[in-house]
Amino acid sequence: MRLLASMELAVGELAQVLGQSQPRVSRHIKILCDAGLAQRRREGGWVFLRAAVNEAGAPDALGTALARVLVSAESADAGFGAQCAEDRQHLGAIRSAREASAADYFARHAVRWDELRSLHIADGPVEAALGEMLSGQIGRLLDVGTGTGRIAELFAERASHLTGLDNSPEMLRLARTRLQHLPAGHVTLVQGDFAQLPFVDAGFDTVLFHQVLHYALAPQAVLAEAARVTAPGGRVVIVDFAPHDREELRTAHAHARLGFSDAQITGLLTAAGFDPAGDRALPGHELIVKIWTGVRRSERASVTEFPRLAAP
Asked: How far is residue 90's CA from residue 47's CA, in Å, rounded to a whole number?
């Protein structure tokens, strides 16, 4: 439990740090999960563990009380304190292994990503504009299609809690590596589909789609889900491309949509239950990056009222 207070860990990683067999660790994990003290989550072929939290991302009364007891025990019991200190040193090996794996992934995919980046403005100005449009505190943030976790990291200090969603276990491992320096209770990474978000209604204050919506075959359904999980008065932010004719992006990068017009985004936001709240264009080389924002109304239209887009 002291280790899980530091960071989310895979079962195999936890066994490595503790120097115990994986079956033995799994047995104890089951006991902790049955007691409501820990939570496990499957991500592809991996199972990850974290200290249990509620829907708001905070520990319950039992978890909070246990954490206090363990902090006191670590200070009062020299043997236990030494054991905890040694185990935390072993976490360094886990962090290093994650970073090495991430570096290998980037090395293998660098050429493909560089080809796409060469078509549009650099990431820095886009991130700066995004920060200006998302001024102030942003509350509970859902980063849809979090990828490497770069955008989640960018807004970490201004969010009360970060949730990153991605359908790819490999991308989530990259995000976990990037965000592993943040407090364990501040970040939740979830594998899931952006058309069927695995979250309760009105659970987020800000929902962000950064270069994600062009993968959606039915963007209207994706934004309907975004509206469902956004609290009234909350914000949605879409960063994507303006319409373009680079057909090769369909095959080379799996883009289902070749950008969106302002009229399309306005129609989609309005039908989903958002009031459009401003946009900005960031011309680059061949592709124009657009940022659109919307504010969640108290009520939203039914899915049947969504405007139809042309076939991708």
From this structure: 20
User: What DSSP assignment string belongs to 220-256?
Assistant: HHHHHHHHHHEEEEEEEEEEEEPS---THHHHHH--S
Q: Does domain 9-97 have CATH number 1.10.3120?
A: no
Q: Is the pTM of this model over 0.90?
A: no
- pLDDT, mean of residues 57-61: 77
Report the amino acid identity of residue 230.
T
| Domain residue extents for the chain | 9-97, 120-305
Short-list 148, 84, 293, CA closest to 208: 293
Count Cβ neighbours within 10 Å for each residue of 241-278 and write b for 16 or more, e otherwise. bbeeebeebeeeeebebbbbeeebbbbbbbbbbbebee
Beta strands in 114-177 (DSSP E): 139-144, 159-166
Q: What is the CATH number of domain 120-305?
A: 3.40.50.150
9-97 shares its CATH topology with 120-305: no
Encoding tokens for residue 233?
């008065």
Is residue 236 within 8 Å of residue 229, measured between CB atoms? no
